[in-house]
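Aggregate trends can hide what the representation actually does to any particular protein. In the encoding step, the backbone of a single protein was reduced to a row of integers, each denoting a local shape. The record that follows shows the chain in one-letter code together with its fold in token form.

***
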Amino acid sequence: MGDLELLLPGEAEVLVRGLRSFPLREMGSEGWNQQHENLEKLNMQAILDATVSQGEPIQELLVTHGKVPTLVEELIAVEMWKQKVFPVFCRVEDFKPQNTFPIYMVVHHEASIINLLETVFFHKEVCESAEDTVLDLVDYCHRKLTLLVAQSGCGGPPEGEGSQDSNPMQELQKQAELMEFEIALKALSVLRYITDCVDSLSLSTLSRMLSTHNLPCLLVELLEHSPWSRREGVCWFLSPGKLQQFEGSRWHTVAPSEQQKLSKLDGQVWIALYNLLLSPEAQARYCLTSFAKGRLLKLRAFLTDTLLDQLPNLAHLQSFLAHLTLTETQPPKKDLVLEQIPEIWERLERENRGKWQAIAKHQLQHVFSPSEQDLRLQARRWAETYRLDVLEAVAPERPRCAYCSAEASKRCSRCQNEWYCCRECQVKHWEKHGKTCVLAAQGDRAK
């Protein structure tokens, strides 16, 4: 698994074999927390394996033990928990937890799973091993991308600055909103990897992607809005602001000499469009209505010589669009077709309908109100899971200041988890970081 190992091969297999689905009521419980920690370890090991390019045993283990469907079900379950149960917590006025980190771990669980899926879905055998749940995963990605387009039409993703007057639960809501944007970008990558397998997908999955969701048109919307790019400081009487792109969990200013370079996320959209529009299997299933034709022809404006130099295969897409201008459109098909439909979301909603308040009440009393001793024990487990040498190895760049986001070189001496660029930022951030820092330090001493 490379020089830097978080898990030995035998340990990784034990963790993969133990993966299971949890009822919504049990999210945040002791057993669930243990699996979340295991998933984080598998996630970090998978990234390490992919980084050093020395085989990817995590992906192989997930396929061998048939655990990809389990990951998809867990992903959709935590998505539902965040939509149905988490808002109940936020509405309870007298719920003022001593520490919101246990709730944060559940909120973050969705990001952990989609990150693992993004890492392993690069391999076609993983997509094939998802079996019928690939339908549910396509629906999941469609939900995330639709929200991404809607968000970009309303001014872009939320900013990270919090209010001085906000309480811990309001801060957690803000973090959840920011996390949702990153999750949607991960979902875009997963969807692109699914389109790589278009020649082996079931007819039901192809129909879901092309007819039910009309993903080609949605991807055109994404290219138009490009929610992962923005202009900073734009003003009507000044020159356009600095171009920024979102990558590695933060916004980067793009140097003028690099602005014509294709971003990773734009590349994912173009590859997905290429797969969905030019593969024979997809062309046989896609109904080119007048609406679809109008949307797709908008792509011609984006196919510049600079883009074609970076993705030469898009010349075939350019030829397809030139032919499309002369092609007569088709009326929407009204054939009677029997096909599979996604069932995880509907099953979970059916099993828990009318129980959201009861689930929240149970978790408030028994899960998210831990004692000081429980928090210390949990802090110790967090410290064991998030090993600093591994975190630094999988980090995409140099650490950033927890307060001002500048490049940081100093680490909190007590917990060793947060980074700062200067003493002043550390002092200003202490009010927010203090409780977590003390717990983490106590967990280290308890080892």
About this structure: Confidence is low (pLDDT under 50) at residues 235-239, 443-447. The longest strand covers residues 242-247.
